[in-house]
Automatic annotation (TrEMBL):
UniProt-annotated location(s): Cell envelope
Pfam hit, one: SBP_bac_3
Signal sequence extent: 1-23
Source superkingdom: Bacteria
Similarity remark: Belongs to the bacterial solute-binding protein 3 family.
Residue span(s) of domain Solute-binding protein family 3/N-terminal: 36-256
The protein's name: Amino acid ABC transporter substrate-binding protein
Keyword annotations from UniProtKB, A to Z: Signal
Keyword Glycoprotein: no
GO cellular component: cell envelope
């Protein structure tokens, strides 16, 4: 009996010692202790997150995140992840933040995640083959095949207009499917699609519609990180005030996209 009591006491002591260690590993403590934060991003979504000619991970969202990390005095480790598993990975704790043009537009996401101060504003665009004759307005996508990631707000937009969803890993795959006539259209970020069209003038694709309203993207964290997110938001606000966001916008888009 004495041995059992002693073992129980040891177990309780071990648990009580281990608990603060878990708390010390929070996002807030890593920021306060100038540690390393992990950030999920696609790495295939130019010009927001992609690899340049030398293989370096870069893009507007990536460089904004690096600038935020520098302001906070922390290191950043990017974990490249397919879009449809990215927010699930954040929820599961595989990384601290997501930097991938996330706007948290649905009540379901807003109930699970929080967003920092906005660092970019953009809207939706509809792209199809240049020889497409069935589309004169956005509602005409009804019944057409839309190449979309399943969990994105652009996929939700395609569903809203009753297109038939063709699941894809990201924008690049959607554009290839349209070119190969395995899909008819895709909804995606106007800045990303315009960048693609500019860099690929012989793509055979063109824009058929662009939304008039814009949504703001920020760094995304799980609920319960209010203090950490406040520090991150302050860093973003400082980057806007000192001209860094404007400079990065001009670098990747030729204009400041940090203002609506």
């Amino acid at each position: 009996m004495f041995k059992k009591i002693a073992l129980l006491a040891t177990s309780v002591l071990a648990f009580s010692v281990a608990t603060p260690a878990i708390a010390a590993d929070s996002l807030l403590d890593r920021i306060n202790n100038k540690g390393t934060i992990t950030v999920g991003t696609e790495g295939t979504y130019a010009p927001f997150t992609y690899h340049d000619g030398s293989g370096k991970l870069t893009g507007y969202d990536v460089e904004v995140t690096r600038a935020v990390a520098e302001k906070l005095g922390v290191k950043v480790e990017f974990k490249e992840t397919a879009w449809d598993s990215m927010l699930a990975g954040l929820k599961a704790g595989r990384f601290d933040l997501v930097a991938n043009q996330v706007a948290l537009t649905t009540p379901e996401r807003q109930a699970t995640f929080d967003k920092s101060s906005v660092y970019s504003w953009s809207g939706a665009m509809l792209l199809a083959r240049a020889d497409e004759t069935r589309i004169s307005k956005v509602e005409d996508v009804k019944g057409l095949r839309a190449g979309q990631t399943l969990s994105s707000n652009y996929g939700e937009l395609a569903q809203k207009y009753e297109a038939k969803i063709v699941p894809v890993d990201g924008m690049a795959q959607a554009l290839k499917l349209i070119q190969n006539k395995q899909a008819d259209v895709t909804f995606n970020d106007s800045l990303a699609l315009l960048d693609y069209l500019k860099k690929n003038p012989e793509s055979g694709l063109k824009s058929f519609w662009e939304a008039s309203d814009k949504v703001g993207a920020g760094l995304i964290a799980n609920k319960g990180n209010d203090e950490a997110l406040a520090k991150i938001s302050q860093a973003i606000d400082d980057l806007r005030a000192d001209g860094t966001l404007k400079k990065l916008g001009e670098q990747f888009f030729g204009k400041d996209i940090s203002v609506k």
